[in-house]
Design a protein that fits this description.
The protein is α/β, with parallel strands linked by helices. It has 2 domains: 4-288, NAD(P)-binding Rossmann-like Domain (Rossmann fold), CATH 3.40.50.720; 292-493, N-(1-d-carboxylethyl)-l-norvaline Dehydrogenase, domain 2 (Orthogonal Bundle). It has helices at residues 11-14, 39-43, 45-55, 73-81, 115-123, 153-160, 168-181, 198-213, 218-224, 241-251, 292-316, 321-325, 328-342, 354-366, 374-378, 381-388, 390-399, 404-416, 434-444, 455-458, 465-481, 483-493; strands at 4-5, 29-35, 61-67, 86-91, 97-102, 105-110, 129-132, 187-191, 225-226, 230-233, 253-254, 259-261, 266-270, 286-288. It is globular and about 65 Å long. The model has no long low-confidence stretch (mean pLDDT 97). The structure holds D-mannonic acid (CS2). Residues 31-282 form the Mannitol dehydrogenase N-terminal domain. Belongs to the mannitol dehydrogenase family. UxuB subfamily. Its EC number is 1.1.1.-. It is an enzyme of class 1 (oxidoreductase).
């Protein structure tokens, strides 16, 4: 078999082997600027946008992908070498691989190399929508105060060097300022991160920064920029070398960075696009008036479910999510957590059967071909837990509901943060506040509550006597009997 690299020149050859764009990419305009071109964006928004270009000859919405951090140089270089093309490999439930070359990313910029080019592109009249996947931690939000962390050193740096920004806030502010100065019409900023009210949070955080950086821009943004909330969903594990090898072996395609994902996908969006938008509804996105309840459901069941499996699974010694959920002791615990502690906080969701949703999640987590890494799930837990689990705990505390299972998971996280699993193997913790987590985890050995004192994560949770009590009990039990034995005891109770 001949091997072909992924690039525009080879598209006609690649077409013999996998699906390729059926549209003429030279006619596609970058009306969307996307910041954060990681795997998730390429499995989700870029996929939907590509589907639409294939399906609807009237659409010419394409994406200009921005790699913001120096760390993103490799993905930028890969996209550049491959003319923005890459292979999306969907791992079906029966193990088949569905491969598609995605063509919707038609331009790409590497911000550290040329910050002014990014600022100018944000101000370019052809850009109508700016979408973001900058991770849950990227919003610079303080959990304890609910406010923007103006003291963050990177933010302070951007305030002092407006023309050489490093953070998304510095870039957006300078780009929007130029837009205003050039009398360019407004645009939409759409977050695609897993945050409750992601549009509201983006607006609040951006305006907080702008108030300090360019106060006279605040009212322009308020009247010229819309911030729709959206719920995004598609499990996208990190690509591993075996994925690249399988692509090469099965189709003779050499792709330096394909993306792998599950078949399921969902995108629920508020229809608030001030400067127009692609007809994403034609390819399965749902436009609704109020996305907040859907976001809440997804974050507190799927994402929290992931964290539960990731943390407990790591301590027990598993490496992938399917291994963890296929351990019936852990999955029974997860089901009990969802039923007893999460679903009671969700209220009625029109058109959604929560029990069915729960079942479908267990099936998705159990897909043995996905091999989603527990390390990926547990990375940056300090930004995830407050968004995925703590709102549920607060709501249950308020209503006098059970918090025992959530407390067990957070106690497990305290033990996880010591950095060694129950078999004595080192845990590769990836977290922006890794040092603080470790320090508090050590203190928790003699006084478990010390872990809850991290205010920037837990807010005032340590003031709740009932939470501290069950948390402490769980901590001591796990230390004494191990996760698995405790889960068996808890499962018999619920
Ligand atoms: C995961 C998400 O990072 C995580 O913790 O829960 O990346 C999850 O896979 C996606 O949100 C699925 O839509």
């Amino acid at each position: 078999m001949d091997y072909y690299k992924v690039n525009s020149k080879n598209l006609s050859l690649l077409k013999e082997r996998v699906s390729v764009p059926t549209y003429d990419r030279t006619n596609v305009k970058a009306g969307i600027l996307h910041i954060g071109i990681g795997g998730f964006h390429r499995a989700h928004e870029a996929f939907y946008t590509d589907e639409l270009l294939n399906k609807n000859s009237n659409s010419n919405w394409g994406i200009c992908g921005v790699a913001l951090l120096s760390f993103d140089q490799r993905i930028y270089q890969t996209l550049k070498d491959q003319n923005g093309l890459y292979t999306l490999i969907v791992k079906e439930l029966d193990g088949t691989l569905t491969k598609t070359i995605i063509g919707s990313i038609v331009d790409y910029l590497f911000a550290p190399e040329n910050p002014i080019a990014v600022i100018e592109r944000i101000a370019n009249p052809e850009i109508k929508i700016i979408t973001l996947t900058i991770t849950e931690g990227g919003y610079n939000y303080n959990e304890a105060t609910g406010e923007f962390e103006i003291e963050n050193p990177s933010i302070q740096k951007d305030l002092k060097n407006p023309n050489d920004p490093k953070t998304v806030f510095g870039y957006l502010t300078q780009g929007l300022k130029l837009r205003k100065e050039n009398n360019v019409s407004g645009c939409t900023i759409q977050s695609c991160d897993n945050i409750q009210g992601n549009g509201h949070v983006t607006k609040k955080m951006l305006l907080s920064y702008v108030k300090h950086a360019e106060p006279e821009l605040v009212s322009w943004i308020e009247s010229h920029v819309s911030f729709p909330n959206s719920m995004v969903d598609r499990i996208t594990p990190a690509t591993v070398s075996a994925d690249m090898a399988a692509l090469k072996e099965t189709s003779g395609i050499e792709d330096a960075w394909p993306v792998v994902c599950e078949p399921f996908k969902q995108w629920v969006i508020e229809d608030d696009f001030i400067a127009g938008r692609p007809a994403w509804e034609k390819v399965g996105a749902q436009f609704v008036e109020d996305v907040v309840p859907y976001e809440k459901m997804k974050l507190s069941l799927l994402n929290a479910g992931h964290s539960v499996l990731g943390i407990l699974g790591t301590l027990i010694g598993y490496s992938t999510i399917d291994e963890v959920v296929n351990d019936t002791v852990v999955s029974a615990f997860l089901e009990a957590y969802m039923e007893q502690e999460v679903i009671p906080t969700l209220g009625d969701l029109e058109g959604v059967d929560l029990n069915e949703y729960k079942k479908s999640l267990l099936q998705r987590f159990g897909n043995i071909y996905i091999k989603d890494q527990v390390d990926r799930i547990c990375s940056e837990s300090s930004a995830k837990i407050p968004k995925f689990m703590l709102p549920t705990v607060q709501s249950q505390l308020k209503d006098g509901g059970s918090i025992e299972l959530a407390a067990f998971v957070i106690a497990s996280w305290a033990i996880y943060s010591l950095g060694v699993d129950e078999n004595g193997t080192k845990i590769p913790i990836k977290d922006a506040v890794k040092a603080v987590l470790h320090e508090k985890a050590v203190a928790a050995k003699s006084n478990p509550k010390a872990f809850l004192d991290i205010e920037s994560i837990f807010g005032s949770l340590a003031d709740s006597e009932s939470f501290v009590e069950v948390f402490t009990k769980s901590y001591q039990n796990i230390m004494q009997f191990g996760v698995k034995k405790c889960l068996i005891d808890l499962n018999s109770k619920f």
